[in-house]
Amino acid sequence: MTGLQDRLTPAQIEEFGREMDAIRRRIVADLGAQDVDYIQNVIKTQRGLEVAGRALMYFPPAWPAAVTALAVSKILDNMEIGHNVMHGQYDWTRDPALSSQKFEWDNVAPAENWRHSHNYVHHTYTNILDKDRDIGYGILRIDPAQKWHPYYLGNPVYATLLAFIFQWGVMLHDLEFDRIVRGERTWADTKDVRGKMLRKAARQVGKDYVLFPLLTGPLAPLTFAGNATANLARNLWAFSIIFCGHFPADVESFTEEETENESRGQWYLRQILGSANITGGKLFHIMSGNLSHQIEHHLFPDIPARRYPQIAAEVRAICEKYGLPYNTGPLHKQLFSVAKKLVKLALPPTPQRESEEPSTLGAEPKAA
Fold it and tell me: Where is this region: Disordered (predicted)?
């Protein structure tokens, strides 16, 4: 590793890794009933909101309340419950309802497909160009090291459309269309993945746009619109949180060469340099699935996310100790940073723009 090695000496990287390992060991040793109670309470709240939202659809004057309850239910299901349970954060409980391999979420993306593309590919190869397919999701230019093509002039449009249909984008991401276009994969190779997609999408569409609308009889059009609005709210929220955790200014990317044979300490270092946090209150963190603590999540993806706020200050202090950046800021600031980057990188490179938005590969240290 070149750029990463320039950050710290080998001895510092080793010590840095030991300090991160110590945090992990301490939290794992402390896991217990409080963590189980927390996630079960979130699940109860999510289910209660879903029932309330479905019931309120029968009363047209309560339509805004019905949509709000259903939207919050879907957000909790996807962010604080589904994402975190499927990461294996509660496998230690041996509770089948909290099993990462058995959980299925309220989303058109099949859990099995997502576990491979997200848990394995993204979290193993975080921000490694040509390895981490979450960099641009195969449709966006989100890093200056990605070669510019006239296609990317539509960058802001593609990102906006992706935000509106985000759950569908997550689902289609597993088809790896970009690899098919490059001839690295054939359409036939996607047969198994496509089968799972079609079955899951059929269930979701049938539930939200056929079954529940029909159950409300003459109010079916209102219910249909309410379900669509709740799904839209969930899509926009999930897109905002995820993009703000991965793509604001100063989040770095890496090459396969510089991450080859990396040590545990170097892996931890890559997670910190390739992530960003979002500041906010307790409810905000819950609604984000604690992905507002994306740095801590990338460091410890299988630790219950409710623990991230507890260790964030310690992680930040360690970063300051070693002169490492700790990228954090409010949602509006991080979101504006992402939008600005998408617009800049849509345009063909020029010396002026390259100086304003230098490649993050092998970047020099920045102040925390």
Answer: 348-368
